[in-house]
């Protein structure tokens, strides 16, 4: 073997690890991981000095400086004021901040009656918003919203847009499709071909969980459970910062559960099933009869299945007026919901449980009795130290649209977003 060939072989061996793996690939992976960690630290703790980042992440300060230089060239880091000197004195460190508008993401929420879209920066500030009453196929609503939001973006903002995320019922996140009326719609491919940006789609409850992880109460929490109440009930579980999807990507599909203390335990009874939904308030009102009061009587005249939003508004007015019948009905509904929530808490033992959907507009009228009933059930369980922390989402009606934006961050934040500077 010639000397030149021997030298080449030695170099190739030197680029591989002990198991034959490529060290070049490992270096690139570690570089992306370090960039992502530094970006998250900047987002959560800015303003912060490079030394503070190294201490929080446990990374060599020289490595942090290299990462910060790359991020600065990509437009992610902004130099701020001088910080306080250390306990030993010396030079005051330069504080660093995340350039919030370095990249933008778009999120779309497709519900049965409405569709809404938002454009947000890296910390979740809404820059543009669009909404429409959905009267057409969901893919048409998505394309119209994306088109409308694109027209509102400046040329500079368009260059910084890294993707579109879509939260929809019946979506398959791996295939980028959503099912509607028996049709398989490749919505991610349609958005990419028409607008030239990457697109991702996921089921709306999963999008809700991603929204909480990046922008809501789940931020900084390793494990939490999300319950979504709209036309049905969906569940999503984040474990160690990652969304749990199950063996067949169908986690969250629940079965019927019966209340132990109800005389009537029928599967069609909305108050004895785990899928207690906002529309069930009309069933409570119907049982109250003449005692329902004016606000619940107004809710009874609404079509709860076709127009649940009007039921939500009618009950909200009764809560605002402190109507006794409305408050009693909401309390009974909270008691029914507490059973399923306690079952889920026993199964998964989450640190935090977040509820989203239209019923969050009822605010403390539902949340306070819900916490009380869940706490009472937790006292009966010997193996639990107490109920999980229970919160209503603070992202409001935009939470699924936020989830669409979070899908883009989850997929692109550590790779494309850093590599492609505007």
Describe what this molecule looks like in 3D:
With 422 residues, the chain is α/β, with parallel strands linked by helices. Helix content is 44%, strand content 19%. It has 15 helices and 15 strands. It has helices at 3-14, 23-45, 50-57, 61-73, 138-152, 155-160, 187-195, 204-215, 281-288, 293-300, 308-320, 324-348, 364-379, 399-412, 416-419, and strands at 77-82, 94-98, 104-110, 114-120, 126-133, 161-168, 171-172, 177-180, 183-185, 199-203, 224-229, 233-239, 242-244, 352-356, 389-392. The strands form 4 sheets. A 5-stranded mixed beta sheet has the order 5-4-3-6-10, with helices on both faces. A hairpin with a 4-residue loop joins β7 and β8 (177-180). The longest helix is centred in the C-terminal third of the chain and has 25 residues, at 324-348. It starts with a helix and ends with a helix.
How far is the first residue's CA from the last residue's CA? Answer: 49 Å
SSE pattern, N- to C-terminal: HHHHEEEEEHHEEEEHEHEEEHHHHEHEHH
The structure class reads alpha/beta
The share of residues in extended strands comes to 15-25%
């Amino acid at each position: 073997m010639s000397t030149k060939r021997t030298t080449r072989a030695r170099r190739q061996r030197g680029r591989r690890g002990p198991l034959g793996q490529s060290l070049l690939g490992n270096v690139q992976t570690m570089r992306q991981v370090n960039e992502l960690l530094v970006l998250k630290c900047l987002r959560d703790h800015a303003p912060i000095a490079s030394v503070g980042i190294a201490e929080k992440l446990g990374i060599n300060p020289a490595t942090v400086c290299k990462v910060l230089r790359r991020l600065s060239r990509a437009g992610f880091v902004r130099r701020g004021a001088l910080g306080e000197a250390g306990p030993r004195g010396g030079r005051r460190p330069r504080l660093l901040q995340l350039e919030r508008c370095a990249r933008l993401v778009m999120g779309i929420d497709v519900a049965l009656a409405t569709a809404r879209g938002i454009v947000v920066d890296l910390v979740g500030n809404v820059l543009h918003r669009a909404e429409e009453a959905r009267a057409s196929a969901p893919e048409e609503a998505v394309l119209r919203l994306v088109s409308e939001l694109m027209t509102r973006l400046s040329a500079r903002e368009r260059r910084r847009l890294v993707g579109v995320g879509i939260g929809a019922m019946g979506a398959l996140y791996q295939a980028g499709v959503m099912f509607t009326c028996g049709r398989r719609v490749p919505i991610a491919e349609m958005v990419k071909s028409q607008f030239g940006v990457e697109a991702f789609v996921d089921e709306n409850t999963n999008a809700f969980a991603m929204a909480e992880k990046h922008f809501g109460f789940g931020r900084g929490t390793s494990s939490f459970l999300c319950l979504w109440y709209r036309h049905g009930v969906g569940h999503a579980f984040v474990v160690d910062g990652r969304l749990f999807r199950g063996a067949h990507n169908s986690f969250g599909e629940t079965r019927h559960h019966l209340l132990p203390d109800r005389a009537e335990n029928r599967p069609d009874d909305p108050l004895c099933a785990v899928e207690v939904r906002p529309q069930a308030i009309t069933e409570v009102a119907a049982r109250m009869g003449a005692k329902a009061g004016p606000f619940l009587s107004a809710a009874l005249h609404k079509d709860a299945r076709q127009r649940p939003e009007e039921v939500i508004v009618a009950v909200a007015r009764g809560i605002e007026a402190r109507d006794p019948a409305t408050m009693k009905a909401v309390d009974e509904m909270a008691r029914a919901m507490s059973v399923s929530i306690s079952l889920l808490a026993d199964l998964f033992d989450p640190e935090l449980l977040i509820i989203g959907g239209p019923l969050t507009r009822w605010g403390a009228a539902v949340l306070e009795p819900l916490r009380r009933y869940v706490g009472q059930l937790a006292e009966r369980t010997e193996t639990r130290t107490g109920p999980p922390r229970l919160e209503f989402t603070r992202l409001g009606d935009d939470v699924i649209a936020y989830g669409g934006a979070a899908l883009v961050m989850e997929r692109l934040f550590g790779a494309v977003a850093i590599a492609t500077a505007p």
